[in-house]
Design brief:
6-stranded mixed sheet; alpha/beta; single chain; Molybdenum Cofactor Biosythetic Enzyme, Chain A
Length: 160
């Protein structure tokens, strides 16, 4: 069982001015990999707070999926916060999401999402819009269990 924290980064969402549609969607999509959602949180786009939450949850779960703050707006600081706390990047995850996204919209090249490992936790940034969350998560969902196994120290061969 993969344990998960789903974190939504949104100024308006954290104030109750906008309903969080992306966080619940992530939770629904994770059912296909039998994940256990241990934590959900909606917090403002504050880099220090984002780092604090990523550090906190990385010692408590196997996977942290974030939504929001990956664009070009001045308040979009999720990638910066994530890069500050991860120990190793996993660039192929973000690359795969952008490549697949480009098949649907050229705006996908504007995503600054990153992915990486902190301790024994995989952290992946997803976009803020529900449509983009679904498209991006569907691209990577089937590799997440394997990634988690490897992060936890599985030494079996990866070749099929």
């Amino acid at each position: 069982m993969i344990t998960v924290a789903v974190l939504t980064f949104s100024d308006k969402g954290s104030k109750g001015e906008r309903a969080d549609a992306s966080g619940p969607l992530i939770q629904a999509l994770l059912k296909s990999i039998a994940a256990e959602i241990k934590y959900t949180d909606v917090i403002p786009d504050e880099e220090d707070l984002i780092k604090q939450k990523l550090i906190q949850y990385s010692s408590e779960v196997d996977l942290i999926l974030t939504t929001g703050g990956t664009g070009l707006s001045p308040r979009d600081v999720t990638p910066e916060a994530t890069l500050e706390v991860i120990e190793r990047q996993v660039p192929g995850i973000a690359e795969a999401m952008r490549i697949e996204g480009l098949k649907k919209t050229r705006r996908a090249m504007l995503s600054r999402a990153v992915a990486g490992v902190r301790g024994k936790a995989l952290i992946i940034n997803l976009p803020g819009s529900p449509k983009a969350v679904q498209e991006n998560l569907e691209v990577i969902l089937d590799v997440i269990p394997h990634a988690i196994e490897k992060i936890k120290g599985d030494t079996s061969e990866c070749a099929r």
